[in-house]
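Operator note (shift B, R.M.): manual run for Protein broad-minded requested after the automated queue skipped it. Running by hand, logging everything below so the morning shift can see what happened. Input copied straight from the record, untouched. If output looks odd, do not overwrite the archive copy; leave it for review.
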Amino acid sequence: MARVCPEDEARLQAMLRQLFRSVKERITGAPSLECAEEVLLRLEETDDNFHNYEFVKYLRQHICNTLGSMIEEEMEKCTSDQNRGEEPGYDTVVQQVTRRVQDSREYKEMMHSLKAVMTAAVEYMSNRFEEEEETRCPEQQKRSHREQSSSYCTDNCSDSDSSFTQSYKFCPGKLQLIVDQLDLRQPKEVRHEALQTLCSAPPSDVLNCEDWTTLCERLAASLSEPDPVFSDRILKFSAQTFTLLPLHMTKEIYASLARHLELYFLSRENHIPTLSAGVDVTHPNVSCLLKKVRLLSEYQREVPSFWIRHPEKYMEEIVESTLALLSVRPDPSHLVSLKILDPVYFFALVDTKAVWFQKWMHAYYSRTIVLKLLEKKYKSLVTAAVQQCVQYLELCETMKADEILGHSRHGGDKQKALCYSGQEMQYVYFIHSLCLLGRLLIYTQGRRLFPVKLKNRKDSVSLTDLLVLFTQLIYCSPSCPKTTLDISSEDYSPASMVMEILQTLCDQKECAIECLYNSTVMGTLLQPILNLLRGTEATPDCSEMALIYAADVLGRVAAVEEGLAFLLYGENTSSSKEESVPGAHVIAQFTKKLLDEEISIFPGSALWPEVQGAFVSVCSQLCSTCEGLQTLLPYSLHEAITRAWRKTRLLSERTPAPVLGSHSVSSESQGPRNVSLPVPSASGSQESRGVPNVASTKQTAAAGRGREPHTHLCGQALAGTLGTKQVLSSGTKVSSQNVSNTKSDEFQSSYIPRMAWEENLLDNLLNFAATPKGLLLLQRTGVINECVTFMSSQYAKSLQVSRWKKVDYGVLVTQVASTAAGAVALRDSGFIRVLVAGLWSSLECGGDDARVTHPKPTPVDPIDRSCQKAFLTLVSLLTAPAAYELLGLQDLPNRAEYSLREVPLCVTDIIDRLIILNSEAKIHSLFNYEQSHIFGLRLLSVMCCALDTLLLLEAQYQVSRVLLQAQEANISEAPSSHRGFIIDGLSVERNHILVRMNVIGGPSERILPPRTLEEGDDPYPWPMFSSYPLPHCYVSKATRNSDIKQDGDLGKLLSCFTVSDKQSEWIENCRSQFCKMMKAKRDAISGAALGELLEKFVLHLTENPSECYFPLVEYTATDADVKNESLSTVQQLGVRMAVRYGRLLSLLKDGAETDLALVLKHCDRFLKLQQAPVKSSLFCLQGASAGHDGFDWFASSLFLLLGGDPERTLRCLLRFSRLLASAFLWPSRLRCSRYLPVDTVESGLSPVYFCSAHCTEMLLKTEVPLVFSAFHMSGFAASQICLQWITQCFWNYMDWIEICHYIATCIFLGPDYQVYICVAIFKHLQQEILQHTQAQDLQVFLKEEALRGFRVSDYFEYMATLEQQYRPALLRDMRSVRAQSS
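Run finished. Output pasted below as returned.
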């Protein structure tokens, strides 16, 4: 390789020349030789064309030719060694091969030859460089010689000069000479020249300085020179070192500068401004001082980005130097009126929001050191900050706002604009202290610095005291009229600064619990609101913005579980003070009065609608939870919000829409467009603004972000003085981009258009739909359609529903779809139309942006991931109530021809196009027939798990007949010994659904065939069928041979009914015996004996008037009176299904269908006597006895339990109807009942949903929080699956014996046990629920899977503990379902 022919040498030189020309600009722009080398070393990372250079290609090819074979051999060796396990360790194959190749002889020879060739090429190019330049451009060479000669004699101290020539001209020993010349004993001229030479020294030579420490000391000593030239030169050199030198050198410069300032402030000889005189930026001494402070401030903000790469002692030295400087307090020997400003005042002036402290506290690495030093040595810094906040609050409390404003009304000429009074400096320091303390409170170790002891104050300031102070600042700090404020000035108002702190504290759970969730702090926040409720003044300076800020804090508190509990119930103390009223009640009362316009302390205020909206949002946040709604139910907030919405809607309809382009705006709309005082542009030079310029450093641009315009440096009160003044703007323009993007910015508009106010109210009403009882209240208001329409529009725009806590759309859709009226609202709002169209697009059309060259991969899962979300939404949407509303009396199109461009738009179309494919036209209309049909069959499988939906589909569409015909068409005609069915994904899915639809039973009573194939010769051993009856293998043998014998102890329990004790004692004794038997011999409580037991217990309960909840209704109809009445098709199918299940359990005999039908006819006749006439468009309310809302599963269960005896069943049902438990165990009991409020009847909601399911969700949050969180993460609601379980009496989910135990437990122990059983089920399923939440199929799992392994008796002790804790509240809630007048 070392011997290269002339042609290859010329080609190599051309390659190098191309490379140098491409990177010429990068190299010449480097400040030093080392930086240029770094540019070349990192060229591959920074240059996109790196691999296109011919020289790089040449090197790659050469390495491949020389070492390629050896690399392959080494890789094979490493792979084989690892397979044998000979070389375990952390090294990868690449690392091992690299190390071996670099150690090889071939690699060393290649590098030696490459070096020789490259050296020769570079030397040749260097020798030819001057000749080529002379030949190409003689004039350029002359000009270059002139510039080179002048550079030796002229020093312009420019930071941008190239360092290549400088590095060669600066001799090695010159630095030592400069150090000697900077000695203070040297003449001034010598030191001046040495300093000038040092500023022009290249960083590479400074880096190699052996006397660096001595140099730093002498530079710091020179800073005390009265000549400003010395100071400027030293600061310029310091800025360069901060930018270019490593931390171990810059920290010495920083420490020396900090020590210099420390001594400067401690000295009595220096001219330091006093508090009474203020700060004049134009004064030479002050200007020089601010330059030094600003340079240190910039370094403070930049150093955290790289000090983690260096030893901890360097960082500790920087931190301690800073804290020592900020803790300096000048000698207090002067008079109090001539108080000298501390260093912290000047640092606050250049970094008002303490950005440096925020960055230092961000990482644990540095935060630990800062907090340790603050605790051990520099706690006075924290004490001084607290003192400053206390003093400002005292000033606000003692002085009136107009007096403070009067103080600030002085001249606004340019000279005054460059001077800052003592009040302004105090305010700057106050803001700095506020930000520092706010950042300190976030961390546990920072909160441990409290309490602190202040001067002239007996008691120490605790953490609670500090938070109370912050809260008082929201209300007490003076506020300037909106007409005099620029939008950017709000960043520095005390209220907005405190809001930022409190918002940050609310976001930190541990911090919020320790700081905010106590009665003292929250009482201070709510005190002005309490005063307004009592009709007194809130505070002398309480403004609308203060109330909005308070509402924002309360909303953030309510968005967290711990904060919600605190607002609802207060602290867990035994205090009985009047002030200990939970905050939620205060907020609700205030909000209701706001909406009813009973509070008007700010008449005509443009911000008043925002105050209303803020507090309404807090209340809706509280009411979006079960416990919050339960607590605030007496205030009827939903009605107040609805009245406000109707009033606003009426005004909007009366007000004409504004004409586009019209300039006439009402006075109300002109509120937010007030003209603010002109703010001087900050685009001018810093010297013209009175801000001392330090140096052009790399940190300047980044540090500029921390120097926002200070147009509000003494609060709103000093706006008159500071309206034309900014501090250290650093070239930053005053624009909306410079305004801090805080959460409170959403409140800054002073006018809410009526349309926005309408949407705000609908948004808050929609939060009620997050819980079952809240949805009942929402339907009672009559605006459910408007709310669902608003939700649909927000969903289409992917916008958040709630202001503070994101409410999942899935949860809202699940709750709304669990009701008939909600399903209709979803349909009318277009939500279902959009959902179905989007599903069809994903299922049949594919993505619009899919490239033709990128074909869509063949889906492996039965439901493709692109359709999973739509599938789960449909599963949550198509509940039994929704199915009856969306599908009731709806025929399928069944057209002879379907266009390929025709898109389904409703649920009926989905069933027609994806599920019931009973024609060739439907099959040919699908692009992805198998995938789309499997999607439909999976959806059908989940829908059929709700037995009422199954009966509806069978009655209207004969789904099972269609599936059997499809199986018949799937039989192979080829002669073989096989069963004849073609086994594919569709036939396996159809077989599973047919078994699920026709075999009723719990987890051990029926066997569902799997949906997957097995390995081996027989991949699907389960028999398929195309006609009835089903093969016996799908029915458990234990079910077919069930024969339960009566236990002797059960006979003893029956005998206790003959004892004539006191009624109450007898009931308690019977319940106690039942509990003992359930725990000891659960299997004995079953069969005919259990039926007799329930029958007698219900009889004795109805004989006790205190146990009867509903009045007695005389029923005299005979069998002959009802025999001629007809049952609906749904009811007839339900009768056949129930009788089939009874025969499967060997509980019924021949003729049971007629008997059960007779019982149902009597029930319909009996319940009609108690029904009220209802006029409604809902399908479920159009005929209460027409089977429009499903089948009576409880009556069927009792029929089976009593051995199929119709007389005993009817007699027991008539007696049971008087008990409170009948309202929840027997859903048909209160259908259109006159015992319910009229608006509840018109809503079509069952007490099972808005009471039992609601209470289950409420207990679930406390008892099984992981499951509760899993439901919300899945976008699903526990209430929906509870409603399905209870409505069909747990058929297909529990074995028959567990269904009997469920009914017996709720009758014997009380209806609240229905809630406890549901909670126990979720506790039993916790692990599986968490797993399926992660798999994103929780809805499907809960609806399709039976409750395997769950036994009611196993959770009796757990349910007893729930009873002790929750029974009073639950029974009170259950008893409240009945109308007050009945």
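Quick read of the result: Residues 105-136 form the longest helix (32 residues). Strands lie at 279-280, 419-420.
Leaving this for review. - R.M.
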